[in-house]
Amino acid sequence: AVADARASAVAAVDGDPGTTWAAAADDEDPTLSVRWLGQRTVRAVSLTLDRQAAASRPTRVELVYPSGRQSVDLDADGTARVRPFRAGQVDVRITRVQRTSNLHADGGLERVGAGVSELRLDGMGLLPITLSEVPFDIGCDFGPTLRVGIGLYPTSVTASPRALFEGGMLPATVCGPPRIDVAPGSTRVVLAPAPAFRGVRVVMRSRTVAPPAVTPAVLSGASPVERELEVPPSFSEARIAVVRENQSKGWVASVPGPGAADRVTVDGWQQGWQLDGQVERLDLRFVPDRLYRSSLALGGILLVLLLVAGLWLRRRPGGEPPLGPRQVHPWALALGGVLALGVMAGWVALACGAAAVGATAVVGRRAPSDLVAWLSGIPVAVAALFYWLRPLGSADGWAGSLAAPQLLVAVTLGLLVSTDLSRAGRPRSLRRRAGRSTSR
């Protein structure tokens, strides 16, 4: 199976169709082994797979037991009748599956292994096996280690077998003294992970504190950058108003009446304000929006002024001659293009573009001037052939994830920026030619 406890064989017999046993993609002989006490008669086998599971559905299995073996094809529901046999163990070998692939964001396909969400053996009467929901203390040798300053303290996780299998947040307590003295000033607190558990949050308190009272507040406002938060009345002096959004320094809260609000971060990510005094309402405003809109307005005004100035100068008669064209040296254009290609695509693309420029400089002087421009289309055609052979969703992977088509395009760009090199420096004939001249 894959390296995940939630995809172990327990998922196939736990009675939950939302959990799935999954074999590794390179497993050529995926097998589920079932053992039980005593001899029982097996008359049918059923292997179902959840539609949302990232696995391939079995279509043919082989049942191997001490007195023989049988191969059967599964119907559309994953069920097949077998010749009844008595045994105390069965190995369910999956010999054929309906191939399924995982489509990556870049278009590549990855084959997934066989999977079984629920396994049933008709006649055995022992499946499914439900995991206990009674919590127990796992022990201090298996939990994360808490470090406070220079002191190390093991922890013990309390959870049921069902909670362990499903994963998620589990409570843990410190194994050791009931009280830890923390020196004044800064103290480093680290919750080191254990092989089976990873610490997420540490709660340290000096006294028993009642759980906070959470009261819903009304958040109104049609504008996405201006809101009003109606704070419900409370007799507690310590109050925090929380908006379930990512914390951002751009949001500023102001109190229209008495009181004050100081920015805080709740649970490490939520936007919050600690209220001081009898605050009844918070006016929330996203301050950077004003600068953003002002910049857009200023840009629009400058654009209009530019258009007006252009039209006015166009109608105004000028005494200066118009600017004429200026020829850029071919080597400056070629080197600038290759350097830009390297900045965008990296060193390998720069090398391909430079090779194309060098080939143009050597061969272009002896070839027709338009030959380089025509030849530049060949690498692009070859790159297009890659995408034709390996389109998005191809079983062999998408051509866009390969380097070869991109480097071929780099060669084409190198040829295009160096086309003038084939014309530059071309020797001109100085021989006399026959002709006529007239004069008056």
Task: Tell me about this structure.
The strands form six sheets. This protein has a five-stranded antiparallel sheet with strand order 4-3-5-2-9, with no helix packed on it. Strands 10, 11, 12, 13 and 14 form a five-stranded antiparallel sheet that branches. It has a four-stranded antiparallel sheet with strand order 15-16-21-18. It is α+β, with helices and mostly antiparallel strands. It has seven helices and 21 strands. It is flat. Helix 6 (377-389) runs antiparallel to helix 7. Strand 19 (260-266) and strand 20 (270-276) form a beta hairpin.
What is the strand tally? 21
SSE string, helix = H, strand = E? Answer: EEEEEEEEEEEEHEEEEEEEEEHHHHHH
Low-confidence stretches: 426-431
Arithmetic mean of pLDDT: 84
Overall shape: it is flat
Major sheet strand order: 4-3-5-2-9
Percentage beta strand: 25-35%
The radius of gyration computed from the alpha-carbon positions, rounded to a whole number of angstroms, is 37 Å
- Ends apart, CA distance between termini: 101 Å
Biggest sheet record:
5 strands, antiparallel
Number of helical segments with 4 or more residues: 7
- Structural class label: alpha+beta
- The residue fraction in helices comes out at 10-25%
